[in-house]
Design goal:
By secondary structure, this protein is of the alpha+beta class. It is built from five helices and eight strands, in the order βαβαβααββββαβ.
């Protein structure tokens, strides 16, 4: 086990790099929440490769978001990933009552977290090999998850 480490970031590039590091460090679970995943580019080549490796190893992805339109419109690689690994991915859309939530985070294996303090800004922090840093966001994610409904379901027939 590595020594816990926490780093702050304030650029989109650093945010994306830490998300990729979180995906690559995870092997069992990824829980991601963002209003629309515009800044967490799940469909980028690097993230697609990392997510495919994670899912091929038996990992499970849960994604919660307010609005799936950005993913549907701009992230075809991620939609293909959902088609290919739909049995290991679940996506849910928040109800209107939760749309005021404006933070953004990704939690890997309940040990790693990338968190943006507000979804309009790239500023945040990432913690690796530090379960206590994940606890509050993990509880929030579970509450969001329970209130949300299935979305981004891709059928094998395309219907």
């Amino acid at each position: 086990m590595s020594e816990p480490r926490t780093v702050t970031f304030d650029t989109r590039r650093d945010c994306e790099a830490h998300l990729l590091a979180c995906i690559e460090a995870s092997s069992m679970t990824l829980a991601l929440f963002d209003p629309d995943f515009a800044v967490f580019p799940l469909g980028s080549i690097r993230n697609d490769t990392a997510l495919r490796a994670f899912l091929a190893g038996g990992g499970h992805l849960r994604l919660a978001l307010h609005d799936p339109r950005q993913i549907e419109r701009d992230q075809p690689r991620f939609l293909r990933l959902l088609r290919d690994y739909g049995h290991l991915c679940e996506c849910r859309q928040t109800p209107r009552g939760l749309r005021q939530l404006t933070d953004s985070f990704g939690i890997g294996d309940d040990r790693h977290i990338v968190r943006r303090f507000h979804s309009d800004h790239p500023r945040g922090e990432a913690s690796f090999d530090h379960p206590p840093a994940c606890e509050l966001s993990q509880h929030r994610f579970e509450a969001i998850w329970q209130e949300s409904n299935a979305t981004l379901q891709v059928s094998r027939t395309g219907l």
